[in-house]
Amino acid sequence: AQSVSQHNHHVILSEAASLELGCNYSYGGTVNLFWYVQYPGQHLQLLLKYFSGDPLVKGIKGFEAEFIKSKFSFNLRKPSVQWSDTAEYFCAVGSNTGNQFYFGTGTSLTVIP
Amino acid sequence: EAGVAQSPRYKIIEKRQSVAFWCNPISGHATLYWYQQILGQGPKLLIQFQNNGVVDDSQLPKDRFSAERLKGVDSTLKIQPAKLEDSAVYLCASSRTGGLLQPQHFGDGTRLSIL
Known about the structure:
heterodimer
């Protein structure tokens, strides 16, 4: 069975600090990887996704993630966070058949102005 | 475009009672999903519809949960009877075409509390 681990449950950063949120997955086949974000009072929305090709993918609002197959990781990064990045971030993995989808437990990010 | 609509936003019931949630996906979206999100956990996929057919319901506790999408648009998720461990936020999502690999658009969810 697939699983997704997000080791950082709660991260607190000051504005302009760099961000890296960890995501590790467990799956024996080809995977497709996602980061979703939930801003306070809003619904979940897609931040970025990786299916194949360049392992460094760029998403909205300056976020990027790197797929490292050997480490089963898909960490989310942003060079300089803003107060508006305060949100819950979820890593997710989908099977290549498209009928299995698993979210991690989420990381709560608080950015202090 | 209008987003995914869910109702009610909140529901409080006693254990062993029944409850139903409603979802209206984004217009034109063929695929609809129901997720359960227990406090402190990520969303867990319960069931996936493609139009009015079930694609996958392997994680739906079928002894008490049921879902339908009769006309391929709106969907309802029912719990009967409810247990304390069903307390969670129930999220509905939709995507334009088939498959969980497409971007999913989520509703605001229904927060269910079981007393």
